[in-house]
Amino acid sequence: MDTQPTDKNTLDASLNALWERARSAVDLIFRLREENRALTERVRDLEQRLHSMQQQVREVQEQLKAQPIQPVNRDSPPSLLNNGDRDVLRGRVKEILAKLDAYL
């Protein structure tokens, strides 16, 4: 009769330990699923922003291709853009780089 309470205590302790491990596993699975969901959403957002920035780069490239080639003046440094266009392009490039830096 002395062995039965000890066996019951051992069984109860084992079941309690198993139950705690199962609860811990469930908690971990829940946290990992939430983290995965958040990371998936972040990746989706970053991919959309990357696509937008790539579109902006394509637009700038198209603008550059559309610019007429100016004859080279040997007295001044060579340039494909006039000062106003250069400033606009410089501003757009800075904006794109700032956005990229913000997301990295």
Q: Which features does this protein show?
A:
104 residues; mainly alpha; 2 helices
Textual characterization of the structure:
With 104 residues, this protein is mostly helical. It has two helices and no strands.
Main pleated-sheet profile: none
The outline comes out as rod-shaped
| Cα-based radius of gyration, to the nearest Å | 32 Å
Separate helix tally: 2
Structural class: mainly alpha
Our estimate of the beta-strand percent is: under 5%
Uncertain residue segments: none
Q: Please give the number of β-strands.
A: 0
Topology as a string of helices (H) and strands (E)? HH
State the end-to-end distance: 69 Å
- Helix % is over 70%
Average the pLDDT over all residues and give the rounded result.
Answer: 85
Question: What is the structure about, briefly put?
Answer:
With 104 residues, the chain is mostly helical. Helices cover 82% and strands 0% of the residues.
Topology:
Blueprint: H1 3-66, H2 83-103
